[in-house]
């Protein structure tokens, strides 16, 4: 176990190093002037460009820049935003709660809906409820997230204005709980609809596989009640791939729920990234992208470890 | 049985052949497809959209509205808000007083261009890489399969964001990014199919006749892959179209002035309360197009593999 964990972590570090190196090369390889121009944006005056060249040391050889880039990264120093002149880490810390709350709240919704839907359609395959679920899943998968979000905003503002829901920046629940709910409910539902569709499909497939196993027949032969067969024997084993997907998804989404955040103006990590791309604020993009990669790597390690606890057949070596 | 009987029977054979006509698998598949009402309607919808996209300049000439031209005096109300559908502007005007209908048609060009081109790229590379991985096996497969896994585990928006930030937005980059992710999906399917065919007798026969590996791959394996590849390619088109719309919506795709469905929707965000058409028409175009391609893909799958069951074999 320890050896497995160690190897997994080493591999994760290797992946992160590759990501950091790729990002570094994408942004910094090339003549100093053009790099500075790219960092400063097309309209920046020549003084700004010279200043950027000085502060970032773009005139040094590439490997020297690379070493200091990695060194800063290891110290958690992601540089300073060109636009707001604040440290990138501060911007990220400010944007993190919005994303965190969005993912957490939505995860509860989509897991509940996804697993329930999957079990319902797997226990009576091809029945009416299965067909209805399948159609809903297809709808959830085919509607682009941003269109779903915009339709929700339209309904909330024009058709059901008395709910008081609306798009807006994240409000801390400690400051204004009502405001927090008014801002968060729509993004929660929007993200959950899209995700739940995937989870219904996954749970249904996994449940159908599990219910076809020999030990389920044994349980039936013993005369175990149907609900016990479905939940204790079936669902428990069927959940392993669902949990795996869940871990991977959480890791990916924590790095920024780009589309949902942008549609609802939530100002989380994803929207921070989009805004930075529009403004050409490269230090922020680099920092946020590496953070997102780190979330994904960590989530994958946790999933691998969790796997061995969930499924006793899996041996880690 | 006497000799003469056999002779008369032999004489009858050509007549029977003339009555029962042999049908090739493609002919059968086409007949099954034409019987599929949803697929045929979808094909019609796609044809109309393609036609509208091709004829976009004609409509621009007929209405007298260039997609980029702003008509603040007639397209906007005295309060400066976009007007709704009417005789001059068939689907209304956008927030800058541009003709929404004409812009949607030009948007269809971008969507179809990106959707088809990136799918074509992805299919060519996906088939080649998938076949090599599946057919050669060993370390070639080990490396390629690993690469595909890595590509498929990338969050595509994150990659797109970093690439756009580093290289600048534009249609070619967008096509490349979309093709890059679709390619991995295609290659994975092709690899699986190739592995399944690799051990079959007709491959062994080709090998024992002295055919080289590359020849066997392209002459013997490839024709068997046409069915799954066609189905997946048809299904990759709507995915690519949605991907393009999403990127353009986020401002990472085409130049914001270019009429793309995603960009049109992004523009509408502050105005769809006063003019719901700004949201409804582009959204409907996008949904209709993707739905049509998806249903057509399903239809082709059913037509090529009659054993499949539409509702229950979707992955």
TrEMBL record, chain A:
<feature type="transmembrane region" description="Helical">
    <location>
        <begin position="180"/>
        <end position="200"/>
    </location>
</feature>
<feature type="domain" description="ABC transmembrane type-1">
    <location>
        <begin position="96"/>
        <end position="303"/>
    </location>
</feature>
<dbReference type="InterPro" id="IPR045621">
    <property type="entry name" value="BPD_transp_1_N"/>
</dbReference>
<feature type="transmembrane region" description="Helical">
    <location>
        <begin position="135"/>
        <end position="160"/>
    </location>
</feature>
<keyword id="KW-0813">Transport</keyword>
<dbReference type="InterPro" id="IPR035906">
    <property type="entry name" value="MetI-like_sf"/>
</dbReference>
<keyword id="KW-0812">Transmembrane</keyword>
<dbReference type="Pfam" id="PF19300">
    <property type="entry name" value="BPD_transp_1_N"/>
</dbReference>
<dbReference type="GO" id="GO:0005886">
    <property type="term" value="C:plasma membrane"/>
</dbReference>
<keyword id="KW-0472">Membrane</keyword>
<dbReference type="GO" id="GO:0055085">
    <property type="term" value="P:transmembrane transport"/>
</dbReference>
<dbReference type="InterPro" id="IPR000515">
    <property type="entry name" value="MetI-like"/>
</dbReference>
<keyword id="KW-1133">Transmembrane helix</keyword>
<dbReference type="Pfam" id="PF00528">
    <property type="entry name" value="BPD_transp_1"/>
</dbReference>
<protein>
    <submittedName>
        <fullName>ABC di/oligopeptide transporter inner membrane subunit</fullName>
    </submittedName>
</protein>
<feature type="transmembrane region" description="Helical">
    <location>
        <begin position="9"/>
        <end position="29"/>
    </location>
</feature>
<feature type="transmembrane region" description="Helical">
    <location>
        <begin position="282"/>
        <end position="303"/>
    </location>
</feature>
<feature type="transmembrane region" description="Helical">
    <location>
        <begin position="100"/>
        <end position="123"/>
    </location>
</feature>
<comment type="similarity">
    <text>Belongs to the binding-protein-dependent transport system permease family.</text>
</comment>
<keyword id="KW-1003">Cell membrane</keyword>
Automatic annotation (TrEMBL), chain B:
<feature type="transmembrane region" description="Helical">
    <location>
        <begin position="225"/>
        <end position="254"/>
    </location>
</feature>
<dbReference type="GO" id="GO:0055085">
    <property type="term" value="P:transmembrane transport"/>
</dbReference>
<comment type="similarity">
    <text>Belongs to the binding-protein-dependent transport system permease family.</text>
</comment>
<keyword id="KW-1003">Cell membrane</keyword>
<dbReference type="InterPro" id="IPR050366">
    <property type="entry name" value="BP-dependent_transpt_permease"/>
</dbReference>
<protein>
    <submittedName>
        <fullName>Peptide ABC transporter permease</fullName>
    </submittedName>
</protein>
<feature type="transmembrane region" description="Helical">
    <location>
        <begin position="156"/>
        <end position="181"/>
    </location>
</feature>
<dbReference type="InterPro" id="IPR035906">
    <property type="entry name" value="MetI-like_sf"/>
</dbReference>
<dbReference type="InterPro" id="IPR025966">
    <property type="entry name" value="OppC_N"/>
</dbReference>
<feature type="transmembrane region" description="Helical">
    <location>
        <begin position="38"/>
        <end position="62"/>
    </location>
</feature>
<keyword id="KW-0812">Transmembrane</keyword>
<feature type="transmembrane region" description="Helical">
    <location>
        <begin position="274"/>
        <end position="297"/>
    </location>
</feature>
<dbReference type="Pfam" id="PF12911">
    <property type="entry name" value="OppC_N"/>
</dbReference>
<keyword id="KW-1133">Transmembrane helix</keyword>
<keyword id="KW-0472">Membrane</keyword>
<dbReference type="InterPro" id="IPR000515">
    <property type="entry name" value="MetI-like"/>
</dbReference>
<keyword id="KW-0813">Transport</keyword>
<dbReference type="GO" id="GO:0005886">
    <property type="term" value="C:plasma membrane"/>
</dbReference>
<dbReference type="Pfam" id="PF00528">
    <property type="entry name" value="BPD_transp_1"/>
</dbReference>
<feature type="transmembrane region" description="Helical">
    <location>
        <begin position="110"/>
        <end position="136"/>
    </location>
</feature>
<feature type="domain" description="ABC transmembrane type-1">
    <location>
        <begin position="108"/>
        <end position="297"/>
    </location>
</feature>
